[in-house]
Amino acid sequence: MKFKKLLLASLLGLATSAFAADYDLKFGMVAGPSSNEYKAVEFFANEVKDKSAGKIDVSIYPSAQLGDDRVMMKQLKDGALDFTLGESARFQIFYPEAEVFALPYMIPDFDTAKKALFETNFGKGLLKKIDDDLGMTVLADAYNGTRQTTSNRAINSIDDMKGLKIRVPNAATNLAFAQYVGAAPTPMAFSEVYLALQTNSVDGQENPLPTIEAQKFYEVQKYLALTNHILNDQLYLVSNETMADLPEDLQKVVKDAAEKAAEYHTKLFTDGEESLIAFFKDNGVTVTTPDLKPFKAALQPYYDEYLNKNGEVGKQAVEEISNLAK
With a cut of 70, which residues of the chain have pLDDT below it? Predict the structure, then answer.
């Protein structure tokens, strides 16, 4: 009987090892399981497992379980984490010139954002520094929505922004947008925004359309202005240590899966934005499209600040990206 039990245990062990992955990798992210970002990362994990024939298994850690994006970037550098997401502009915490990716009205569309990162000399230089200094590689770039403005009164022109008490995240570019267009920027924790809008503690807020829908801000704000002020992206990042541990064929699997996931990620946001305008209108929201030329002109002093801070590399960034956008 004892022999039979040992034999059974041995057979079960062989069966388990036959299906075990050769590489158990971790993907940390800030967004939660209901987000478009999570759906895209799940797509990535499934694609990697399928195309590697089960040799790579990717476990997902959403909702900032492993820390915020800055913490997870450091974990990638140290080889303690395999994958994470991060905006191009987020790299300004290491390289101040990367703020260019979030300068209001600098990046008009996602195609320009990708070219700015992968095709300009400025972008290529930044990617090299990320690789050499931070020990991580950018596998792919995805569209993550464009920030718009909701309010408790109609915004038909830049004049209607005057004195508008608008909640913004505590980020320099978002604060600058509100300030330079004449509003009163009010930094506030994201968790407090719904109640602040509901009680008119603030007059408005700015976020991508999918966030406005997910957080149900349309329930307490009946005006939406398509201010299109900051385009958000998401980079699929991998630790260089992780890639070095993989044979070339599996490195290719990871790269290809990231590019496919980024395409899916982008589609989720673009499709969502198209349908959400109609959704908001159906829910009683008045949608306005103010002339954005005066908005961009109002931000020129902030562009000058950026150039003064970043010297020649900042000048290169603005010139190359501006030429792309023409």
Answer: 1-19
Is 147 assigned a ligand-binding role in the annotation? Answer: yes
The DSSP code for 33 is T
Dist CA 312 CA 326 (whole Å): 21
Residue 167 among known ligand-binding residues: yes
The answer to whether residue 8 is domain-embedded is no
* Residue 33: CATH number of its domain: 3.40.190.170
What does pTM read for this prediction?
Answer: 0.89
Query: CA 79, CA 73: separation in Å to the nearest integer?
Result: 10
Give the type of residue at 100. Answer: V
Cβ atoms within 10 Å of 175's Cβ, excluding its own: 17
**In a domain? residue 319:** yes
One-letter amino acid at 201 equals S
207 among annotated binding-site residues? yes
The conformation of residue 161, written as its DSSP 8-state character, comes to G
Rounded-to-integer distance, Cα 184 and Cα 202, Å:
9
- What does the buried/exposed string (b/e) look like for 155-168 if buried means 16 or more CB atoms within 10 Å of the residue's CB? beebebbeebbbbb
Indicate whether 13 belongs to any domain: no
Q: Is residue 12 part of a domain?
A: no
Helix axis angle for 110-118 and 121-134, nearest 10°, is 60
Q: Which two tokens stand for residue 12?
A: 């079960």
Indicate the number of domains in the chain: 1
Does 90 belong to an annotated binding site?
Answer: no
Say how far apart CA 238 and CA 136 lie, in whole Å: 6
User: Could you give the CA distance from residue 220 to residue 151 in angstroms, rounded to a whole number?
Assistant: 9
- Using DSSP bridges, classify how beta strands 184-187 and 165-168 pair: parallel, antiparallel or unpaired: parallel
- How confident is the model over 137-171, as pLDDT tens digits? 999 999 999 999 999 999 999 999 999 999 999 88
Other CB atoms within 10 Å distance of the CB of residue 250: 19
Bridge partners of 262? none
